[in-house]
């Protein structure tokens, strides 16, 4: 099944993200059992994300979700195919101009260096810095502070501004990283597992903030998640991946379907309806969650 | 609210950051923080410069012959009234070049240590661990052994040291890098291995040297700052100045890299360029230092840690303060080295290791400082 673009998207001049037939593989040393080079991490993906959409990327472990995000940020380069960001080929853009268009929130960072929350958020201003002879080290200007402050207000971390990053809880840290991404003033936000390792309350926090940002700033959001239910509740469209390939992309109702998930994840799942939102909801079966199903190829 | 660039305008810096008509009231803590930070930067840098000057004066005063304050003052102000100006000669001809060299060498070691630690996100990194120093030392030993140390107008030794340092960091880089990626644990391991190989080769080279050269090489390897020539001073000073400018330009990029490479690159940091700059600067500077002063350990590793505890992790402040701190530490260590057993001296590398080692252990055992974790 190729892509299905929902009809309710307004007429926007350029799609935020356009992916055409990309293929990518890691040049790994360890994955060389198969004689030839390592297998494709991403192979022949093709999809489009319109401006202002929230798209969730789901799929089993190792299906290439994180690789896809890295490709979209040009942290790695595809072997074949073209990626366009607002109609411009990613290859032709400088690192800084990509950063002014799209911000990326990685899964984990190193918190060993004693930076404050504000330092961390201000790092998002890097692609907008103006350094010169008079400002060799690139001190932030008043404008950068204003943007950082606004970003911190958006993610409710203003009160933490002067705390050290390593003294924060996981939920607070995640919101700080989100603020840092916002301080970059991007048009697209790409998040790698924004709710991983968070308890329910903090998961809800992050999702609400994302929804708010999306609504207020008309930002395009693309996030990777293991939590199908979260994706179902908060995404306009869901992109389902398996073994580096696109299985399907469409509204939650279209993608979250017992048979599809059965085939992709290799285990039986139950899909019912969320009591409040009416969106599909996934549960694991009671007894035989390990019952595998013969995979008959892609849909 | 944040203003987002429209499709035609991609550069936010062309637009006002705050949407008019009602600019948001800036959160007081942050606004005052900015003023505070500027004040803090000038305050810290100013006091470090003053402290450095004070330490220089003290180091000029002490030595095999301790000067009185009056003697020091008259020498410093060139106000000796006739007669033989012994104090003036001691201060300006003997001690000043050596103290200045201590400042330069200490500053170079500390600033490269700080930059390398951020780059590899590892507290153990310094020019020694990454194999640069032993490569440079090996190169210089070869220079000694085959007698080109004093050729090329006295530049033979620095040249050999620089080539050795450059080759070893290139080798380390080559071993660690795979397809555009530079895994930091691999880099450190490669550094340790190259370090070991170079040390072994150096021991071999010293074992076949004749006794007179051997004595000089061994003394030099232990680290010493005796009687630098004017060319050496100018050379190291020039290298240091260029290095400071190049590293300060990358200091915010180093902040981002210290937190995570992918995140930094996604925020627009050209990590390849920063890596190249830092490695090249380290190789050149270390080659230059090793050729004039041999192996002086611990300054590059300890000083950035200390400064981080005192001033935080922002490399825009950390780098210059580390440089001055390293200079101070080495000047003091060298003064101790030439004072305690005067008129003989202890190699300054011994002093830095003896001060630095226990101090590092103390920090490890007492501070709850995450960077040691």
Please give a quick description of this structure.
The complex is a heterodimer of chains A (299) and B (373). By secondary structure, chain A is α/β, with parallel strands linked by helices.
Topology of this protein?
The complex is a heterodimer of chains A (299) and B (373).
Chain A: E1 17-24, E2 42-49, E3 54-58, H1 65-72, E4 80-85, E5 88-89, H2 95-101, E6 102-105, H3 117-122, H4 142-154, H5 170-183, E7 188-192, H6 200-217, E8 220-224, H7 228-234, E9 237-242, E10 245-250, H8 252-255, H9 258-265, E11 270-273, E12 280-283
Helix pairs in contact in A: 4-5, 5-6
Chain B: H1 28-61, H2 69-76, H3 86-120, H4 132-146, H5 156-176, H6 184-207, H7 211-221, H8 230-249, H9 251-259, H10 261-266, H11 271-293, H12 299-311, H13 315-339, H14 348-366
Helix pairs in contact in B: 1-3, 1-13, 2-3, 3-8, 3-9, 3-11, 3-12, 3-13, 4-5, 4-6, 4-11, 5-6, 5-11, 8-11, 12-13, 13-14
Structure description:
The complex is a heterodimer of chains A (299) and B (373). Chain A is α/β, with parallel strands linked by helices. Chain A has a domain at 113-184. Chain A is 28% helix and 21% strand. In chain A, strand 11 and strand 12 (280-283) form a beta hairpin. In chain A, helix 4 packs across helix 5. Chain A starts with 16 loop residues before the first strand and ends in a 16-residue tail after the last strand. Residues 1-10, 29-35 and 291-299 of chain A have low confidence and may be disordered. Chain B has one domain (51-372): ABC transporter involved in vitamin B12 uptake, BtuC (Orthogonal Bundle). In chain B, 71% of the residues lie in helices and 0% in strands. Chain B is globular and about 65 Å long. Residues 1-26 of chain B have low confidence and may be disordered. Chain B is an all-alpha fold and 373 residues long. Chain B is built from 14 helices and no strands. Chain B has helices at 28-61, 69-76, 86-120, 132-146, 156-176, 184-207, 211-221, 230-249, 251-259, 261-266, 271-293, 299-311, 315-339, 348-366. The interface between A and B is large, with 71 and 57 residues.
